[in-house]
Specification:
single chain; 10 strands; 6-stranded mixed β-sheet; alpha/beta; globular
Length: 262
């Protein structure tokens, strides 16, 4: 469904991504892991179109989208959530989620401006579909009319996921979906991610630091360190890879020096 080939991205003299290549297979969960600063969010940014790589290719369903604008990629069915919440805090849960479905509306400028005829019918149909397939699915019905700003952090993350689902994505990019959550909230989010995969067959790319969650959910794991891809494969093979262990824990000499300093 999604292929990254030899992607490189630099900011001045800093190489955020250096010849990164992998395939996200259709209907599976691919986790992107690595220490802080490894290039994980930069990778999401070149896939979603926020940045354009200096070298390499991004293929979506065998179509080269490397130079395609972000809105065109969204039209193809690439949706994402963000590491830091990007919600409209003064708007309700329902209105925030409906914004994700805006890209699927086809009414013209005048009918939309007057909210008349086909625009009104289309809007009402979108609302009904979102209430049925997103709000009920994510168990947000009891707060659909609440302003996002008053919600606890875990529910706000769920609303952001709902906005991405309203786009009816083929590929869903989840950037640290459980960061800052407690154990119960993390388990709920993991359940929703699995349900999304099973219910709609969505291809999911997941950036996450919770290794327990990654190992439980991912069909494939790609590991980055300082912008370079150091491993890829099944969760079990990756977690026993010496290069991955070194990237997370350091060499034996580094560990001993840290212990002596402490």
């Amino acid at each position: 469904m999604l292929t990254v080939k030899d992607a490189e991205l630099s900011f001045g003299g800093i190489k955020a991504l250096d010849q990164v290549s992998f395939e996200a297979r259709s209907g599976e969960i691919t986790a992107i892991i690595g220490p802080n600063g490894a290039g994980k969010t930069s990778l999401f940014n070149i896939i979603s179109g926020f940045y354009r790589p200096q070298r390499g290719q991004i293929l979506f369903d065998n179509t080269d989208i490397t130079r395609m604008r972000a809105d065109k990629r969204a039209n193809l069915g690439i949706a994402r959530t963000f590491q830091n919440l990007a919600l409209f805090r003064g708007m309700t849960v329902l209105d925030n989620i409906k914004l994700g479905g805006h890209i699927r509306l086809r009414s013209g400028f005048w009918t939309s401006g007057w909210f008349y005829g086909s625009a009104q019918r289309e809007e009402l149909a979108l609302r009904a579909q979102i209430e049925r397939d997103v709000i009920d699915f994510l168990e947000l019905d009891h707060i659909r009319n609440a302003p996002v700003a008053i919600l606890p952090y875990g529910l706000q993350k769920r609303v952001e996921l709902g906005r991405a689902l309203a786009m009816q994505p083929n590929v869903l990019l989840l950037d640290e979906p459980v960061a800052g959550m407690n154990r119960e909230e993390t388990e709920d989010m993991a359940r929703f991610i699995l349900d999304i995969q099973e219910r709609w067959g969505t291809t999911i790319l997941l950036v996450e630091h919770d290794m327990g969650m990654v190992m439980d959910l991912a069909n494939q794991v790609v590991v980055l360190n300082f912008g370079r891809q150091i491993a890829s494969g099944s969760a079990d093979s990756v977690q026993h890879n010496p290069a991955v262990i070194e990237a997370y824990l350091g060499t034996k000499a580094t560990q001993e020096a840290s212990l002596q300093a402490s």
